[in-house]
Amino acid sequence: MSNGIYGRAATGLQDTSWAVNENVARIGAKGEQKTEGLLNGFAKKAAVLHDLRIPLPGFKANIDHAVVSGKSVLLIDSKMWKPGFYWSMLGYRRGWEKTPHIGKSQEYVSNAMNAFLQGTGAKVLTPRLVVWSSRDGQPLSTWMLNVPGAEVVNGLRIVPFMRSFVRGGSADPAIVRRLQELLVKAPRATRQPAADRLSVPPRPARLDVYADADPFV
C-alpha cells in the first residue's frame, strides 16, 4: 500500500530568494503548515505529499501539496491572505483594492504534471487554491473569486472535499513513486553542539497557527 505521508510542508521555503522579504516567506510557510495538518488526517486512505518541484526547467516555485487516491491526483496550493472580500468581476480585487497578482493562472502547473505523469494512467484534477486568513478572527471571503486553472477553497472547506476525494481507493503505487521524485529535500543543517540541538524546538504542523505580523498576498 502506498498510502501515507511523504515529505514535509514548506521545506522549499528555506530558500527565501523568491519572496519580497523573509516575513512574507514566514507567513507563507504557516499557510502551508495549516493545510498540511488537515491533509495529513487523510493519510490512511490516500498518499499525501508535501512540497514538490514543478516539473519544468528553471521554476523556483513549488507545488505545496499533492494527494493521490486511486489514480486521481489532486494538486493544492496554500495561501495566507489579508482578511476581506475577494472578487474577480472587474479585475482582481480585495474590496476595491486592486490585487492582480492573485489571478495568476495555475494551468501551467496541471499541464506540467500531466506531462510528467504520462504513462502512469494518472488523472490530474483541477488544482485547488486553499486560502487562509492571516488574522485570527478576521475572515475572508472568496465566493466571487475565480482564478484561471484552479478552484478556490476557503480554508477548512477543503475538508469535506477531501472526504469525498479519498473514496477513490488506495493510492496507485506507480504514481506515488513518480511523484516522490519531485519531493523537495531539506538542506543538510550545519552540525551543532548537542546542547544547542536540544534547545531548538521542532517546527509544529498545527491548525491554530496564524500570522500576527502584517499579512500579505
Q: What do these coordinates show?
A:
This is Nuclease-related domain-containing protein. InterPro entries: NERD. Residues 28-100 form the NERD domain. Mean pLDDT is 84; it is low at 16-21 and 189-217. Helix content is 23%, strand content 24%. By secondary structure, the protein is an alpha/beta fold. It contains five helices and eleven strands; from the N terminus they run E-H-E-E-E-E-E-E-H-E-E-E-E-H-H-H. It has one domain. The strands form two sheets. Strands 1, 2, 3, 4, 8, 9 and 11 form a seven-stranded mixed sheet that branches. Strands 7-6-5-10 form a four-stranded mixed sheet, with no helix packed on it.
Oligomer: single chain
Domain module tally:
1
> What structural class should be given to the helix and strand makeup?
alpha/beta
Total count of helical runs of at least 4 residues:
5
pLDDT < 50 runs, ≥5 residues:
16-21, 189-217
Query: What is the terminal separation in angstroms?
Result: 38 Å
**Amount of beta strand:** 15-25%
Tally of DSSP β-strands: 11
Any idea what the radius of gyration is?
17 Å
Question: What summary fits the major beta sheet?
Answer: 7 strands, mixed
Helical residue percent? 10-25%
Overall pLDDT score: 84
List the helices and strands and how they pair.
Layout: E1 4-6, H1 22-39, E2 47-53, E3 62-69, E4 72-81, E5 84-87, E6 93-94, E7 97-98, H2 107-116, E8 123-124, E9 128-133, E10 140-144, E11 151-154, H3 158-165, H4 173-180, H5 194-198
Parallel strand pairs: 1-2, 4-8, 4-9, 5-10, 9-11
Antiparallel strand pairs: 2-3, 3-4, 5-6, 6-7
